[in-house]
Amino acid sequence: MSRAALGPALALALVGLALASLAIGDRAIPAAELLGALAGDRASAPASAMIVLDLRLPRVALAALAGAALGAAGAVAQTVMRNPLAEPGLLGINAGAAVAALAGGLWLHGLPATLTPWFAFAGALGMAAAIWGLSWRGGTSSIRIILVGIGLNAMAGAAAAFISLFAEITALQRMQAWLAGSVAQARWETVWPLAAWTLPGLALALAASRELDLLAFGAQTARALGQRAQLAAGLAVALCALLAAAAVAAVGPVAFVGLIAPHLARRLAGPSHLARLPAAAASGALLLMAADLVGRTAIAPTQIPAGLLTTLIGAPFFAWLLWRGRHA
Amino acid sequence: MIGPSASAARFAALLAALGLGLALACLWSLRTGAMPIPPGELVGAIFAPEGSHADVVVRSVRLPRLLTGLIAGAALAAAGAIMQAATNNPLASPGILGVNAGAAFAVVTATLVAPGAAMGTLVWWAFAGAGIAAVAVYGAASAGRGGATPVKLALAGAILSAFIGSLTAAALIFDTGSLDAVRAWTVGSVEGRTMASVAAVAPYAGLGLAAALAFSRQVTTLSLGPEVARQVGQRVGLWRALCAVCVVALAGSAVALAGPVAFVGLMVPHAARLSVGVDYGRILPVSALGGAALVVAADAALRAGLPGRDVPVGVGLAMLGAPVFIALARGRAVGRAEARA
């Protein structure tokens, strides 16, 4: 496929998958009723319009936004760490979000559920800051960031286990779906804040795409070309953390979207970040929407959380990446 | 460099000190609990039981718990030491490289598929899971350019753990009742084991330890790196495979008994190497003793510090061990191993 056709092709795929997700489900919606509902006609088929507009549309929008944020965050992470195996989730952002959300949800009884995303957001950002700080030794190195991330990840996992052990089992079961990474609880109230974070974040990443191109050459080359590399890398990590944290806060810890989407994007769009970032965002959105569609229809009425499916696809994909020896 | 006889005396003194520390930890572990038992009755309960209430508590609750900690600690620490030598990787350990996670997932699967399976069966599931995980992680990490570098191994282990965590979560979606039963075990705990379980696993762990000690010279040679090992005439592939079998036996029995207790296999061998040098004939026994003492003492400390809450020992050890891992990752040894690869 030529690169000029890439944009329209990805857009077409997004719209097609979104329409399919709106139409398919426990109750199939005929095309005429679907288009009618989307045009704002609630009167002629009220039940279908309710399903499409109030149940499935927020879910599709949430999956698309979270997937886009994770895909773009993954692309930024891989550039900054100069390691095609880096992924925001593996670096502790998911674990930080999970611990904070568990602590908030299980310890502070009577806490409104709407506050869980804020706890998760704070936990993810705190974790990213801790990783960046701990791997600092007169500058950072990508290897230290990855390893410190793995260590903190294990610690956060133990903390999460500690918290959940002394929780009421019913409260824990309620959180289990969120912990696996799921868009099943989507409501418009969770979609809007995510959109308000993600869209400016994506715009910012695009605006910085030239700086990211420079960073991809490595700190020394970037410095020789006149970039303040450490500052640029720090800002890029902050942006990556903000995007990933917003996504995780909304849908729970979804792993591997941030790993797979940037690889697809690199294949499709080449090295320039101006083309690669939108492609990564679109691939991430497609991945998470597809995972949710498969997860809720494959063995209905049981819903497989989207995060489970992305992990089940992602881990073999990671092994394949190692196998291909693309790791320089 | 100290002379050989001086360092031998130092090694003997260290072993004696560790033995004493382990004995004290065991005593502390046996004494700590809801019911106070005087030391005299402890000895009586173990060697000449009369069926009193204290005897029953000691023999059916505290002794199995102590032995579980002993076996798991010694086996995991020895497994970690072997892995660090055989992969020339300061970050290697059964926990980091996903071997524990593989064994744990196999045991969870077995308890879901065949509820009430005996420990003698579960331990073989654990061996299979540990073996598959070890082969998968090492295979994936050593493929491609540069071979199995510390970072690639650690990443592959982390990914495998994430993958297995998802599989476990998936299994628990279909069987929500098991969540409560499995959750304490999946972080590593020495609580609630029976004497029969301990007796079923002990022979495998003992065999693994004995083999590790018997191979210690070969392990030392492996730890010098594949080039040196080949130059002195070692068949590196063969000995790495034998080391892997040892690790699977040790980690598999530890996990079958106590669950995936984290970081013992990482911390203890490093401490041992710092105190006795590079000879695995010394590192391995010191690691085994130290690992056993660490797990037993950590469990006793958690029980004494948080009475009535029963915090799994794996949680406490992860809180202790993760900072050690981070310190190692920040240190120079990893940089050297990366540069060499």
UniProtKB/TrEMBL annotation, chain A:
GO annotation terms (biological process): siderophore-iron import into cell
Keywords attached to this entry: Cell membrane, Membrane, Transmembrane, Transmembrane helix, Transport
Localization annotation: Cell membrane
InterPro entries: ABC_BtuC-like, ABC_transptr_permease_BtuC
Superkingdom field: Bacteria
Record field: transmembrane: 60-77, 89-109, 115-134, 146-171, 231-261, 273-294, 306-323
UniProt cross-references to CDD domains, sorted A to Z: TM_ABC_iron-siderophores_like
Annotated GO MF terms: transmembrane transporter activity
Gene Ontology cellular component list: plasma membrane
Pfam family, one: FecCD
Keyword Methyltransferase part of the UniProt annotation: no
Family per similarity comment: Belongs to the binding-protein-dependent transport system permease family. FecCD subfamily.
Annotated protein name in UniProt: Iron complex transport system permease protein
Organism expressing this protein natively: Albimonas pacifica
Automatic annotation (TrEMBL), chain B:
Alphabetized Pfam families for the sequence: FecCD (PF01032)
UniProt membrane topology term: Multi-pass membrane protein
The family this protein is said to belong to: Belongs to the binding-protein-dependent transport system permease family. FecCD subfamily.
GO annotations of cellular component type: plasma membrane
The species this protein was found in: Albimonas pacifica
Top-level taxonomic group: Bacteria
Coarse class of the protein's main subcellular location: membrane
GO MF: transmembrane transporter activity
TM ranges: 66-83, 95-116, 122-141, 153-174, 194-216, 237-263, 311-329
The protein, known as: Iron complex transport system permease protein
GO biological process: siderophore-iron import into cell
InterPro entries, per the entry: ABC_BtuC-like, ABC_transptr_permease_BtuC
Location in the cell: Cell membrane
CDD domains: TM_ABC_iron-siderophores_like (cd06550)
UniProt keyword list: Cell membrane, Membrane, Transmembrane, Transmembrane helix, Transport
